[in-house]
Amino acid sequence: MTDVPALWFDDPAGDGDLRFWNGDEWTDQVLVDGETRRSAPHTTLARPKPSEHEREIRYQVQHEAKVLPRSTGGETLDSARVLVTNHRPSWHVPRADYRLMDDAGRLLGRAKRLTSAGPFLWLRVNSMLDHHLRLRLEVRDPDDALLATLDRRRFGSAAAVYVTGPLGARIGTIALDKRSRPPTLRILVGDDVVATMAAADQTARSITISAADGTSIGRVEKTALALGEGILTFAQRFVLERSTEPGTDLHQLIGLVPLALDLMLGSTYDFEKHRQLRHDPRMAKLDR
């Protein structure tokens, strides 16, 4: 593939952080600190030559999730304003790891499920069985240093992901109450609810994150699955945008929301399907 689609790329002229390529030529639109501005036109700039990986991630962020890129390089998992969390797909054996990247595809970290036995992972294909499993993830930086551990547990019609730091201290909790329609999730630090998350509809493909005072502080967009949706449970793709202060517990927890969503929901999980199953007497015992 030689054609480069219309995307924001690092500004080769240096007038802004990023410059818009319209598919044929560079435009005068630049991004500076997340704001669009006009710059002097440039007619001698070389065409962008992104790798296939970079092009795929930029397209996922800008076209599928409709999120403006913010990265100019050098961000970490904590400082990045836009995070891409993609479950690595496989056609045969389910993988148990995820890549966490900035909006240009640069690797910021990895997450791996601690239990990686094939038969165990295949249980996730059946969402009803999946929600009775205890799942754990470790999040590590590119140098393999442990950053956080996510531990998912289920309690009746509720589920929670407990997040602990590298030394085992609790950072916070991401909790789900499946009784609400559409589903509502909460972020807790200690016993205090510091943020809530509300899905736009039953599919939970678009989730808005709000602070305790109702201010919008982020959103999560579930983009197209790498493999057939509703068939396999190991090809989730998320784009997260956040505006919280780096270095805080809330900022770190929001960055882990896509991983928590995948642990609690699973890619075959559908809220509308679950609602129907709950009203089926044959399935009622699964919600007790």
Strand arrangement across the biggest beta sheet: 5-6-7-8-9-10-11-12-13-14-15-16
Number of helices: 6
Instruction: State the low-pLDDT regions, or none.
Output: 226-234, 267-288
- Whole-number tally of structural domains: 2
Please tell me what the overall shape is.
Answer: elongated
Based on helices, strands and strand pairing, what is the structural class? Answer: alpha+beta
Largest sheet: 12 strands, antiparallel, barrel
Strand-residue fraction? 35-45%
CATH architecture of the largest domain: Beta Barrel
Per DSSP E runs of 2 or more residues, the count of β-strands stands at 16
CATH superfamily of the largest domain: LURP1-related
CATH hierarchy class name of the largest domain: Mainly Beta
* Helix content bin: 10-25%
Instruction: Provide the residue-averaged pLDDT.
Output: 80
For the terminal residues, how far apart are their CA atoms? Answer: 52 Å
* CATH fold topology of the largest domain: Porin
What is the chain-wise order of helices and strands?
Answer: EEEEHEEEHHEEEEEEEEEHHH
Q: What value does the Rg take, in angstroms?
A: 20 Å
Structure overview:
The chain has 288 residues and is of the alpha+beta class. It has 2 domains: 7-49, no CATH class; 82-274, Porin (Beta Barrel). 16% of the residues lie in helices and 35% in strands. The chain contains 6 helices and 16 strands. The strands form 2 sheets. Strands 5-6-7-8-9-10-11-12-13-14-15-16 form a 12-stranded antiparallel barrel.
